[in-house]
Amino acid sequence: MYIVDLGDKYKYCERYRDPLTNKRKITSVTLAKNTKQAQHQAQMLLQAKIAKIMSQVKHIETIPDITL
């Protein structure tokens, strides 16, 4: 996780690898403070966001291939 200072706010970003395309992608959340508590909260939010994205990818992978 890395932090980008936006002036009065902070953007917390996390990189992850998309299993479908095998490319690295970035997800982020924006919070008002840059404290240890805010960093922990941002880490939890980012992990939940990435887990949601990964669960959608697994749903797409379960769709059978259709040939015409």
Q: How would you characterize the overall build of this protein?
A:
38% of the residues lie in helices and 29% in strands. The protein has 68 residues and is an alpha+beta fold. Strands 1-2-3 form a three-stranded antiparallel β-sheet, covered by helices on one side. The protein is elongated. The chain starts with a strand and ends in a 7-residue tail after the last helix. The model has no long low-confidence stretch (mean pLDDT 88).
C-alpha end-to-end distance: 44 Å
What form results from the Cα inertia axes?
Answer: elongated
What percent of residues are in strands? 25-35%
Main-sheet strand order equals: 1-2-3
Structural class: alpha+beta
Short description:
By secondary structure, the protein is α+β, with helices and mostly antiparallel strands. About 40% of the residues lie in helices and about 30% in strands. The longest helix is centred in the last third of the chain and has 26 residues, at about 35-60.
Features:
68 residues; alpha+beta; 3-stranded antiparallel β-sheet; 1 helix; 38% helix; elongated
Topology:
Elements: E1 2-5, E2 10-17, E3 24-31, H1 36-61
Antiparallel strand pairs: 1-2, 2-3
